Amino acid sequence: MLISGNTGNWTRELWNRPEADVFAERVLSLGIKPQQIVLEPQARSFAENLAFARALSPDARRVTFVTKPNSIRR
Question: Could you tell me which of 40, 43, 45 has the C-alpha nearest to residue 71?
């Protein structure tokens, strides 16, 4: 599982750490093992999420993105 994101328009005021860290904490609490997680804590936009994720997993052939509904409309 690759989790990407720094802070953005929706989370800048909510958390004082990257979204990737917050979401990783949540998936760990749901039983995902730490070795199953790849973190990318730099992306500040959906475009950067895609670019940085691709750089971390260049051989991925199938991916599933989980994001906010408004991100899909962009």
Answer: 45
Q: Residue 34: its pLDDT value, please?
A: 97
Rounded CA gap, 58 and 53, in Å?
Answer: 8
Handedness of CA 55, 61, 67, 69 (dihedral sign): positive
Q: Is the CB of residue 43 less than 8 Å from the CB of residue 49?
A: yes
List the beta bridge partners of residue 40: 4
**3 SS3 class:** strand
CA distances from 46 to 3, 20, 24, 57, 60 (A): 12, 13, 18, 16, 18
pLDDT in tens, 19-61: 999 999 999 999 999 999 999 999 998 889 999 999 999 999 9
